Description:
About 25% of the residues lie in helices and about 15% in strands. With about 550 residues, the chain is α/β, with parallel strands linked by helices. Strands 1, 2, 3, 4, 7, 8, 9, 10, 11, 12 and 13 form an eleven-stranded mixed beta sheet that branches. β14 and β15 form a beta hairpin. The termini are far apart.
Amino acid sequence: ITLNPRTMNYKYLFLALLSLGIFAEEKKPNVIIFLVDDLGWADISLRGADIDTPAIDSLFTDGMTMDRFYATPICSPTRAALMTGRDPMRLGIAYGVVMPWMNNGVHPDEHFMPESFQTAGYQTAMVGKWHLGHSQETFHPNSRGFDDFYGHLHTEVGYFPPFANQGGVDFQRNGLTISDEGYETFLLADEASRWIKSRDIAKPFFLYMPFIAPHSPLEAPDDLVEKYSDLEDARELTRSEAIDRTRKLNGFSPSARPMYAAVVDALDQAIGQVLETLKSEGIDEETIILFSSDNGGAAYAGGGADNYPLRGGKGDTYEGGIRVIAAMRWTGHIAPESNFSSIMTVMDVFPTLAGATNIQMMNTKELWGRDMWPAIKDSKRVALNKEVFFASETPNYGEFHTTVFNDKWKLVQVISSSLMEINVQNKLFDISKDPNEYEDLASKYPKLVELMAEKIRKWRALHPISGTRVQLVPPPGWRAPKDWASYTIPIEELQDDASLGFGAHAHQILDYLIKDHGRIIYDCKPGDWERGKCKAPEKPKTHQH
Length: 545
């Protein structure tokens, strides 16, 4: 075609190019995050488990196995890191989970992933378990970027009605209590499918599906219970002292493995239903899917999971507790049956999905996570650019499981404290050569142990002084509400500013004096206020209404 600029009608040329899509806005992919609860490393049929998991298996065979994907050892910290891309130690949600009798959540100043997707024109929904704060509306999913929320504010609400925690009803849609009947896992799949089908097809969507399954206490439909009733528990011990002692103490009780298998089978059916909905809507190839567990499988007595050959499980910082089963699928962009061997953490998810969808991240605070999409897209290995830290104090008060690791070295540290003493146990592994943590090299490299232990000490000093600690029981005399939706304090009934607490006039001095114990000034490193890097909190304003 020869174009003569003297005779060309630019108006019609523009319209022709527009009709060919030359100037059309890039169509954004949809995003679904399947976050499952306490699924073990070896608990899908693709990895040899005697459990039927064809839907989950398909995410690995049709997409990419995230071979070294890391989450925190327990629930709420992983969810906080996922939603913010930030280190949960800085957020004050690192050692324990948000229990029903707690009034905390993630600070409202923190920016959540769905907020960026909302700003980019996405419709957003969450279907499942929140576990990031319930006492005030500022902590609620609908205040953190989700247009729609269907599910539970807490964990352990049961798999059958009444869905409750501590006797209080915990099942809602956008702040209003509902009474849907059925098996919880299947209800979530029904809602996700309904929401996808009723979406605005002119806009992309972001769907977050944090399942309760297969978290204990375990329950499943009768047909699945019968299906696995004769399943033999052939699991090896985990080589974690804390976990294996629970199995030995539980030697006279029935194994949790058969019921666990039934729960995982139901979970797979639910995920399969959502995948079928994508196909029926003709959007499966334009949807990015990320699948992972929130921590290692619960391999202790009553949990039923299997992380073999990894060491340990949920609650500790061996690989079985933090290196979790994960896959990513985007047809046409990620090669099927591919493998990503680089270290990726749950903190990388937000920037990586932002990179894959080409949306702008609207956060202003310092991120820990990084955009791994270029490496994932090209299946290229990428080295860590900083060390990874994780911690847990769950379930034993005063027993801290911590770790720091890089591409080669990993220190696993257990700190046990009582009223009169503190015991520190250090184990050092060359994780590049010994991923299953058989050979403890601490005695061979004492200087390296000392160096890495000091890094853990400095990292733990970032924890806000009133951040979460393990609290397995409520304060004496505490009573649960009859309905958790009514327990949440509406925004209009809250003051306009976050409370500074006692000693607001002396926060800088207190922050300096407290040193290793944690931070008084939120999101401030020790000594940073002296160097002008953080502002001391101001006194709350007096608002005229």
